[in-house]
What does this fold into?
Amino acid sequence: MRCIRTAILVFCVLFTTNLFSQTDEEIFKNIYKSSLTNGKSYDWLNYLSNQIGSRLSGSLGAERAVAFTKQELEKLGLDNVWLQPVMVPKWVRGAKEYAYIKSAKGTTTVNICALGGSVATPPLGLKSAVVEVHDFQELKALGKEKVEGKIVFYNRPMQPDVIQTFEAYGGCVNQRYEGALQAAKYGAVGVIVRSMNLRLDDLPHTGSMTYENLPVDKRIPSAAISTNDAELLSTMLKLDPSIEFFFRQNCKQLKDVLSYNVIGEITGNEFPNEYMIVGGHLDSWDLGDGSHDDGAGVVQSMEVLRLLKEIGIKPKRSIRVVLFMNEENGLRGGNKYAEEAKQKGENHVFALESDAGGFTPRGFSFDCTDAAFNQVLSWQHLFKPYLIYFFEKGGSGADVGPLKTNTNVLAGLRPDSQRYFDHHHASNDTFDAVNKRELELGAATMTALVYLFDKYGVNTMVNRLKN
It folds into this structure.
């Protein structure tokens, strides 16, 4: 028995010594090899997407996703896995929406979907004349006289010549989010919004919208229309401004319900009170199964902790995976996590979010000081063999944003985004649209960055190398 114990001890010492003697380049190679040859992220996503499906906040799918991911994290043998309660909104879509354009020649059916948080139309639907605008300035110029009693059609496309597609999205998403609120001020009876999509297709894309403090009886229904049908409606309006638009939707806002953030932790062996987190949001919209948005980010974040354990890396700092609930229509999970972290006095030195799809990773964006960013740039040569070239200041992620301090580093994984908005919030955000290898490369890239920040700390690389 004594010989066996001695042998085990010798093995552990040799293994640990060998791990510590490895260069960063060798650790990177092990991370990528493990993810690409023995990864779990794709299998996890398969179950999340095909066995559970859509996971809108407050839904049965969201509840099942909480149970599944907690169970899988427990299987990894982490030091701690727990659920963090959070109250979330419960909005239901109801029966499939229906819409048509009525002209002198008859009716033409078009593809729409209710925007998340919208009120319903009257039970028999809503039909009215249409006014087309491209922004709130045009709406204001028309005024109440030309808008009252009509349906406002917002038709500002995502700008196609903007290479950073999230920038193009940001340039037009306010019409979706605030469109009904602004149109109601001028007496509009409903709102139709061009889908946030760079290609022309027949798929309407949902997303969140707001009424702010508008009284319930003043709220008007709001729906997205596919890009093909937005083009059709615009053309028909130019030919005949007297055409009418009909739509019917049965969505409803219910009372808030209890849900959870799912959290797993590896406790640091040197600085256990310094926390590093990696995460994505567990909820999704209800039209597809949320594979890119954000099932990919969820399983990649889980994979980070699994890879660290598989490779045998004992982190200095405590590393948590946080699967946030309710990013899509409220950000309650991210705010709740930050609120409790502040109450407990937890020191979050680094946070990484994946919420831009499961496409080929290109790099990261960072919200940090210049000194911390220069530290990141000194690591570029490590990522170059894996074709990771994009390192830029500016933005991280919606769920980790509330953790921002003057000294910590927030980051966001940045995959190739050129096809992301083809799927974003639409019915084709499904498992078949995610490439296994691309997903696994993203998980490995995240793990590599977490490894570096854990090893060197924030803005301490130069000093450590000198020592």
